[in-house]
Amino acid sequence: MNNLESIAKLIRYYSLVMSTEAGSGHPTSSLSAADLMAGLLFGGTFKYDLDNPRYPNNDRLIFSKGHASPLFYSLWAAAGKITEKELMSFRKFGSPLEGHPTPAFRYTEAATGSLGQGLSIGVGMAMNAKYIDKLPYRTYVLLGDSEMAEGSQWEAMEIAAYYKLDNLIGIIDVNRLGQRGETMYGHDLSVYKERVSSFGWEPIVIDGHHFPQILTAYKQALQSKDKPAMVIARTIKGKGVSFIEDKNGWHGKPLKKDELARALEELGEINKSLRGEIAKPDNAYPSVRASEKAKPVSFDPAKPVATRHAYGTALERIFPEVPDMVVLDAEVSNSTYADIFKTKYPSRFFEMFIAEQNMVGTALGFSIRGKTPFVSTFAAFLTRAFDQIRMSQYSHANIKFCGSHAGVSIGEDGSSQMGLEDIAMFRTILDSVVFYPSDAVSTEKLVEVMAEHKGISYLRTTRKELPILYRNDEVFRTGGSKILKSNQSDVAVVVAAGITVHEALKAYEVLKAAGILIRVIDLYSVKPVDMSTLTQAASDTGAIITVEDHFAEGGIGEAVASALAGHLAPVYSLAVRRMPKSGKPDELLDYEEISKQAIVNKVKEIVKGFKQSFRKK
Amino acid sequence: MNNLESIAKLIRYYSLVMSTEAGSGHPTSSLSAADLMAGLLFGGTFKYDLDNPRYPNNDRLIFSKGHASPLFYSLWAAAGKITEKELMSFRKFGSPLEGHPTPAFRYTEAATGSLGQGLSIGVGMAMNAKYIDKLPYRTYVLLGDSEMAEGSQWEAMEIAAYYKLDNLIGIIDVNRLGQRGETMYGHDLSVYKERVSSFGWEPIVIDGHHFPQILTAYKQALQSKDKPAMVIARTIKGKGVSFIEDKNGWHGKPLKKDELARALEELGEINKSLRGEIAKPDNAYPSVRASEKAKPVSFDPAKPVATRHAYGTALERIFPEVPDMVVLDAEVSNSTYADIFKTKYPSRFFEMFIAEQNMVGTALGFSIRGKTPFVSTFAAFLTRAFDQIRMSQYSHANIKFCGSHAGVSIGEDGSSQMGLEDIAMFRTILDSVVFYPSDAVSTEKLVEVMAEHKGISYLRTTRKELPILYRNDEVFRTGGSKILKSNQSDVAVVVAAGITVHEALKAYEVLKAAGILIRVIDLYSVKPVDMSTLTQAASDTGAIITVEDHFAEGGIGEAVASALAGHLAPVYSLAVRRMPKSGKPDELLDYEEISKQAIVNKVKEIVKGFKQSFRKK
């Protein structure tokens, strides 16, 4: 049995000195949870192979309150896996010990620091253990009391209870104080208890500085059947150093050198040679299904299919080839068509209800545990989870997003349901891939590409049925595009994607009848863009028109304009610029001037401009 | 007393026929709540001046379950304010009766349709009544059971209880069925009761088709003291038409013509001449404080000030001139410096805790009630509320957002705390204004501009102290910019904003010493951009370099590239393109190649390119 009191003291020592050395950080938020975490890791509950952090049957530990990073790093120092000297690099450029935990440090499961996200990630890991890997590992999430105000926490709570995740244990460090003062409930633990219980969890209320209570709580949590357990611990912010204990104004503040000296004097003798023992987990691996070649795509070229529908058929089709796949949807699987997959493979489909934030966090948990999650809802409603999407990039997420019902072309449902900013949102993610297919064949092929791609990718689908444009054996790739119409004497190139490809093709026919030839490019890969095709087109024709069913900012027009910014070709952007409303799809495409007619008008305007400038010369 | 049974029948009739006529819409979700809403509006509880929807003391009604729009519109038809013929324009292009309610219809308080947002808007209206206008009006919010899965609901719940909003009444229409099947709890009302109660609300459980219970519930709700009340009603989806009652597969589906005929036969005789009476509210107006001229800006030009700090001083300074102002912050007011305002005017400041979604919804509620809300948190955490921000544009919101801690220049805290996609996010909003000031003077002036502007605006502030660049009497405007350095022989123009303006000025000095002159533009108005200054600069110098502490996509580089896309000048973008990490601000600016040195390098590269292309000729 470890000497928990002494280990906790060592951890407090580390937390204090490393933050003072850094000149910033959150020692008081670390001190409040030091006993809880020492008790968890070194009290016999936690099972972990310290030499193999990615071992599938390790217990998982997520610091949802990521600002307690001094504590987090100190734990692994106390376990002997990082030296005091290394701790002193905390928050310095190039150190793996960043201000908030990131995977740069090998014991970090997921990057945290935007509050209220860790529990969802834990839900994903616990669902993975219970339903996919079928391993006995447990997932522990350290939560702050302040962050319990985030709605995302309650999404995670309800879903964890719904899926009976008795392998998920939350620990709320109720230290009473937030950043700028007291939380809504201070030290009233009964509020947390009642809420946690009403959300279907087993609440365990304790004194978070009393080791016997702490150890009993974890034992009790492990006994919970069919219910996740929440340890609700009364703690003192800054615990262990009298002059910062339970005091407002000490959030995110390291001790000054002289204050540190006083603090260390109070702490008393530190046994720096102490190392906490952590038991290894049982030897267990998930069984892995063999991969089988997926059937080929086979659409009837005469029969229109909605790209959202092809997303569903693609998921079902490729599953044999992608054994790690799981599919999540936010209560709209009959609209996104993820339900095609669900019907065929119900055990790999997870209904996440109308709680998009938690859905994305859960997908991240699956991703970290080696799965390939596909996540779908209306494109508009993915904006609900922008913070989770943003944060997932810092955990090197491998998540495939699908947003259906893109653009004004959804029609009668009106503006609230129209995804008009989703391309802009996903383009901001570092190294993300953004696809926007215009027919069922390209959708199927791009879903395949997404499954193979490691990272964050996004597929934008359209509500209404669209004609098939491509042969079933056509090849699509990240950074590719298709030239659908091309002639020697093209006066302009129309760069379209998704539904506007069809408008561009209609415009081509109208213009051709009027003796005007245009090039039509299907820019199905919106990020990265096909630079060589675009620059060639720009130099061949001298004028580029982008047309998109998306707001002008951050969309296809800006992607093309910035890609060609050094290439001296004018880029004209047709995009959604008027307050969208209800109506028939075609009425709305016309209204927003992104329809066939708008393209025809713009091309004619350009041709007229050429002629005029020619006459001037 | 109105004949509620007959009115409810009329409302059911309207809901059915208008959705069948439209060929889309949500009749079954309307029928479940028809009795609840007939009872509310025509049962003596609701007070409203039908001829004056904007009357300050009207009770407010928000359909958070916006898809029940047939019911919503039918209510006002039953009140005699819209004809059956007008109802038949539902979902048609140009009709005010959009698929989901928008302010195009004059009785709509707020656009809804993205679920889980109405209660937050109601919180804002109720807070306005209780704390600002001090009027006795009440705010009613109709909620779906499916949407209670959204975390944002529980944010609204906790904040409403915290602020003791006994003038806010929620009504959950527990019809058991979501879009694609049963909700998590079906008809188990005890789950809702327990949760609602644990979040500090008064739960009132009833049969939602039993008028005596409905009327008693509203009376009871009005009695609640210091607590908001939630009517939890057991209802039947499709109630009143036997073959669609409580059946899965009928979400968002209108009846076909023949089905409608059968349904109407079941409904029996409809009294179309019936009109429900609604009592007018008491005559009461909010007292309005007179506006006083704000004091002028007066910064010591020698003393650096963080722009986030200037945001706080600006709020405090302009309040006398902006009597409608309220300030909201998400538990970081000592970082955003909104606490400067709070200290001086505590009754106009609202602590919204770490619950950004609800903060934005609440701000929208204030905005609709004529207030001028300023809303602040870290720029990164505003992404949490993207869906609420997106939706607020459809309610013609007048909200002023401030995101602090923008960019990698925050330093040691690391990626989770860095706003690097906020410009992209706010630029997507139709007609939004995006400001990014580089010193305290411009910050103060731009906060003034924001207060005067009607619409959605965003101010991006920087963590660290920055030198003062402008005189205290300098003028700033929407769509403006400042040329800080300009010469006849500029080889390039550097377009910067915020912290990179200072890097550009340092680069100017380095380059000048090397005999190279550049133009430096402070593009403080990122949207709209100053087209004339940019185009002039492009034609004067032939090369544009944008430099920004933001991801490349959707930021300043793309704003400039798209603005100049027709003007044939190359635009080079320096932006955050590498995975950000912890470190000193200057180290990180260098690492991301957006520092002085990166600008110097890029200018020299361009100059070298010029010379080479000159030699070739």
Give a quick summary of the entry.
Chain A has 617 residues and is of the alpha/beta class.
Written description of the protein model:
Two copies of one chain form a homodimer. Chain A is α/β, with parallel strands linked by helices. Chain A is 39% helix and 15% strand. Chain A has 22 helices and 19 strands. In chain A, strands 8-7-9-10-12-11-17 form a seven-stranded mixed sheet, sandwiched between helices. In chain A, helix 17 links the parallel strand 11 and strand 12. In chain A, helix 1 runs antiparallel to helix 9 and helix 2 runs parallel beside helix 3. The longest helix of chain A is centred in the C-terminal third of the chain and has 21 residues. Chain A is elongated. The model of chain A has no long low-confidence stretch (mean pLDDT 96). Chains A and B meet through helix 6, helix 7, helix 11, helix 15 and helix 16 of A and helix 6, helix 7, helix 11, helix 15 and helix 16 of B.
